[in-house]
Design a protein that fits this description.
The chain has helices at about 20-25, 30-40, 65-70, 90-100, 120-130, 150-160, and strands at about 55-60, 75-80, 105-110, 170-175, 180-185. It is of the alpha/beta class and about 190 residues long. The protein has a 5-stranded mixed sheet. The structure holds zinc ion. The site of zinc ion has 7 residues, from loops.
Length: about 190
């Protein structure tokens, strides 16, 4: 039924599950929840362009609700998340696509209070991972921010000065995980 459609337009009808998947209970809770989500699904036909022309880069911290904290609905904004809300090469690459193909003309970089990526030094995080039974991660850059506000300003500047993103208006913000309040830094 999906034959003839471009690959990106196909639904789930062609998905083939590995037999081992059936015995794996790792995701049972969320798959069950998805079953009822799909039952009352209300986003069919939503446009892929960001309705409010907005991209939001924030931390992966699970205390942050990017849509709710900005009064947004699904479809309104492109949400990018990583540890520490840092402007990485991957974020820049994504913003180029958002800017030119997905209707985005403004971007918020939102760091937050009590962020693990802004509490201490790079070495502390390597030590914490090792202390939690993890491997030696010193060949990875976690991009820990020694001065969080200065780092947000630098990251905003990195986006503003990137030649591929000349159309984008960018702001830097700090979100307070205890009050839900957002403050603009730059
Ligand atoms: Zn964080």
């Amino acid at each position: 039924m999906s034959r003839g459609l471009p690959r990106y337009a196909r639904g789930l009808e062609a998905v083939a599950y590995d037999a081992r998947v059936a015995a794996d209970e790792t995701f049972d809770d969320v798959l069950a929840a998805n079953e009822s989500y799909a039952h009352g699904f209300r986003l069919a036909g939503l446009e892929p362009k960001a309705a409010k022309g907005l991209a939001v880069l924030t931390c992966m911290d699970s205390r942050i609700e990017p849509l709710a904290m900005l009064g947004l609905e699904p479809g309104d904004a492109k949400i990018l998340r990583n540890a520490g809300a840092r402007v990485t090469d991957d974020v820049l690459r994504t913003l180029v696509l958002a800017s030119y193909l997905l209707g985005v003309d403004r971007a918020m970089i939102v760091a937050h209070t009590k962020c693990r990526m802004a509490a201490g030094e790079e070495e502390d995080v390597h030590a914490a991972v090792a202390g939690a039974g993890g491997p030696d991660t010193r060949s990875l850059a976690f991009l820990v921010a020694a001065d969080q506000e200065a780092t947000v300003r630098e990251d905003v500047q990195r986006v503003r000065s990137w030649p591929y993103l000349t159309r984008l208006r960018v702001g830097g913000f700090l979100y307070d995980v205890d009050t839900g309040r957002l403050a603009r830094l730059c």
